[in-house]
Amino acid sequence: MAARTSPDPECEIVTTLTLVELCRISGTTRDWVIELVDEGVLDPVGGGQTAWRFESSSITVIARVRRLQHDLCLNIPGAALVLSLADENARLRQHLSQAAGDAPGTPDP
Amino acid sequence: MSWSPAGPGMRLQAQMEYKDFYKALGVGRDATADEIKRAYRKLVRKYHPDVNTGPDGAGAEQKFKEIGEAYDVLSDPEKRAAYDQLGASWTEGQAFRPPPDWDAGFEFSGAGHPSDQPDQFGDLFRDLFSQRAAYDRGGQAGARVHVPGQDHHAKILVDLAEAYQGGSREFSLRKPELDAEGRITLRERAIRVTIPKGVRDGQHIRLAGQGAPGVGRGKPGDLYLEVALTAPAGFRIDGRDVYMELPLTPWEAALGARISVDTPSGKVDLRVPDHVQPGKKLRLKGRGIPGRPAGDLYGVVKIVIAPVETEKARKLYEEMARETRYDPRQKAGG
Do A12 and B205 touch (CB under 8 A)? Predict the structure, then answer.
């Protein structure tokens, strides 16, 4: 897509990505992404690698896995486990903070 | 101001706060390399921002950055020796002026530790523009070399209301750059972003051509903005569905009611069925985040006891107590 020089750059939601696009944007290799799919960390729709379509949130997932691998010396299954536990933890914390917010009972205006 | 490890050419700024790296890792000044490593690994597990994604995430991230900074210096014998030379009499946060040429005579091998790259530690370098910071490669460009510019990544916070309505807003992004002396400086740039209606948490917005410039005739890279939706108090977002607190009086919950509710997409008249219990979800189909299909909006019932402020109110409650004989401690079903 051509760049524009206008002060308001063109903005578009990235809906889905092919394997090639995801690798390019994330700066990763194809084999590594395939490993993440095999591990269930990424869940593309479509059968077969050429037909795979990834959600754009996969870009963030890949960045998180890379950081975990680097910072905690994890392999892919380890990073996958940490990711799912961290997400579960975040979900529980959200519920907990909501429940805690309910407790004092705010007066009805 | 922080002392960011910048590898060769690292200089302390003229005025800064002293940072106690030993304290950051919770080790003594005489700790061995192994002890430092163990302390670091333990703290990294505890404070890693990808592990702490809850509401405390920001605090953990700051702590993680400090730990990384500390370990970067203390794990490298050369940097540690240079740091130790500053003396132990400083206290954390004290205004600090390093002695002139404090690092003279220390030969920094630079490439020894992976953290010498500016993208390894620190939220600035990693989260604003992850992976490869924008190195200006222009100087190396041969006349016939054309290389496309790199894509950049950043995260933006978008209000729930903006996701419903869409809009255009200016965001300020900070980009690390290396100056002529090899120091990392942050350059701010304002960029206007059109937020498409119906954008979801975790989605990316592509700004074509807003990444790093290309070399030669190579086209510039794109800028990818990760959207983090923020929900106001009492709201929770799950994909396209939105949950909002729905406060009801006891009689509305008991008898049912027609009420008017403020939702992110405007006022909505809602029919509350009779006998709803706290926590029950009333669905407003298609009133979640717009899209194809649009998400749903759920009102989560919360029963608010009206304060007993008048004699009449007290009498009504007393009458209800007498007449209903309902005991909520008995098995459910009453």
Answer: yes
Mean pLDDT of B180-204: 84
B172: β partners: B190
Interface contact flag, B233 A101, Cβ < 8 Å: yes
- Between A68 and B93, the more confident residue is A68
What is the per-residue pLDDT for A8? Answer: 64
- Crossing angle of the two packed helices A58-72 and A19-26, in degrees rounded to 10: 50
Beta-strand ranges (E) seen in chain B are 16-17, 95-96, 152-159, 167-178, 184-195, 204-207, 223-230, 235-238, 241-248, 257-263, 266-272, 281-284, 297-303
Q: What is the dihedral of CA B165, B205, B230, A19, to 10 degrees?
A: 130
Q: Which positions in chain A touch B231 (Cβ < 8 Å)?
A: none
Q: Name the strand (E) or helix (H) holding B162.
A: helix B160-165
Structure token digits, residue B110 = 């630079």
Query: Which of A10, A59, A94 lies at the smallest CB-CB distance from B208?
Result: A10
- For residue B186, give both structure tokens: 């942050």
| Chain centre to alpha carbon of residue B12 | 28
- The confidence score (pLDDT) of residue B132 equals 36
Residues of chain A found within 8 Å of residue B204, distances taken between Cβ atoms: 13-14, 56-57, 59-60
The model's pLDDT over A20-58, given as tens digits with 9 standing for 90+, comes to: 999 998 889 999 999 999 888 998 998 888 999 999 899
Mutate to test the interface with B, among A11, A42, A84 (most CBs of B within 10 A): A11
B103 closest CA partner among B7, B1, B245, B26: B7
Average pLDDT, chain B: 77
More confident residue, A97 or B311: B311
Q: Does any CB of chain B come closer than 8 Å to the CB of residue A89?
A: yes
High-pLDDT (> 70) share of chain B, %: 73
What is the average per-residue pLDDT within B63-87? 85
Confidence tier at B130 by pLDDT (50, 70, 90): very low
Domains along chain B with CATH numbers:
16-115 (1.10.287.110), 129-135+149-230 (2.60.260.20), 235-324 (2.60.260.20)
For residue A21, what pLDDT is reported?
A: 92
Question: Of chain B residues 267-306, which have a CB less than 8 A from chain A?
Answer: 302, 304-306
Per domain, the residue ranges of chain A are 16-99
At the topology level, CATH places domain A16-99 in Multidrug-efflux Transporter Regulator; Chain: A; Domain 2 (1.10.1660)
Give the per-residue pLDDT at B55: 59
Which residues of chain A does B49 touch, with a Cβ-Cβ cutoff of 8 Å? 67
